[in-house]
Amino acid sequence: GVFLYNHLQQKVRNAEALAQKYKQQQEALSAQLQVVYEHRSRLERSLQKERGEHKKTKEDFLVYKLEAQEALNKEKQDSMNRYGALSSQHKILKNQHEDVKKQLLDLQLQHNSLKLEHRKTLESHSQKYAQLQQEKDSEVTSLQDTVYKLREESKLLRKAHQEVHSQLLNAQVVKQE
To answer: pLDDT tens digits for 21-31?
Structure first.
């Protein structure tokens, strides 16, 4: 009976030691489980916070994307309007350029025509001038001849006048005597 009692007591002590060991393991596991639960709770809170921030970031991005799209559309419309205005201005300037080119061509043709007419007029005037110069030269020569003849005639008339005057004086002298 003592042996059995000792044996049972030994088993009880072993069972208590084992129970104590299991209790310590359970407490250790419970503490670890508590740490895991707390860590999980923190992770869930962090995940919820991240989801909230992600949702807010996504909403902000959508607002930004919409505003950027509107700004891009407005800029595109402004660019198209500016392009249209510049295009019409370019057409106007191109037409004006064509008109100016045409006017320049007309003026060049007119200038060439006037140059030719001027050359013809100049030649005609040169010919008339040469003819008039020739006529003047011949007239001057003729007048010089006439002047020479008139001088000669004048000399003869003076001589004749002097002779008549001498004869008159001689006649007066003879008459007075």
So the answer is: 999 999 999 99
- Give the whole-angstrom CA distance, residue 42 versus residue 101: 84
Q: Kindly state the tokens that stand for 82.
A: 């500016």
Q: What is the pLDDT of residue 173?
A: 87
Return the C-alpha torsion angle 91, 92, 93, 96, nearest 10: 120
CA separation for the pair 170, 133 (Å, rounded): 54
